Amino acid sequence: MRNSAVAACLAVSFSVLGAAPSLAFGDCGARAIACYDKVRLPDVYATRTRPVLVSPGWTEVAATPPVVANRTVPVLVSPGRWRTVTTPPVYGTRLERVLVAPRSRSFETIPAVTRRVEQTVIVSPGGVAWEHSRGLFGRERLCKVATPPVMRTVVREVVVSPARRVARISPAVYQNVEQSVVLRPATAQRVYEPPVRGFINQTVVVRPSAVQVVAHPPVVGVTQETVLVRPGGYAWQPARRGLFW
Hints:
10% helix, 245 residues, mainly beta
């Protein structure tokens, strides 16, 4: 019952919030057991400390150049060696009979010799044949008669001498040519050449170059920043007794 009365009083108070102050809590003031005001709660902040990088670490490389000097050193210009001295051969010429074309044999074909001759030949030999005839008054007669042979003159080719193959012999062909001959052969002689030495200026390293690496650590600082712990809002708080309560 007490909670329902508080709720009713709050509802009436908000409905007449625009009325005169004497009417805002007039009905609830006499009958209210407890009153609450809606208030704005502020945001809650806190200060937090965190490390920050002021400058990153870096590495420094320090190089020391080498120390060099010049000095004279003996060197071998050319080593000793054996060399072969060659004397070329001496050539001359002489006439020599050489075979240009060897003896050969070839064959020649002589065609056949023919002539034309005439010859009488029997086309059909003679013989006996029967001839049938009829007389003046229709009387038939059969007679046996002799038939002469049929002759014909023909022309034909007659071989007088047949074709033949005749061998032809060609003698060998020779020619005098100049030939190069060695009058004196080449000779080779081994000769030793001693080594050749000299001096040169050479740059030598007295002390080699060096590299030193120096590592510089990073610089870290501390910074403070304000962070929001809990955002503010609205809440109901018990109202203080005053003119209308």
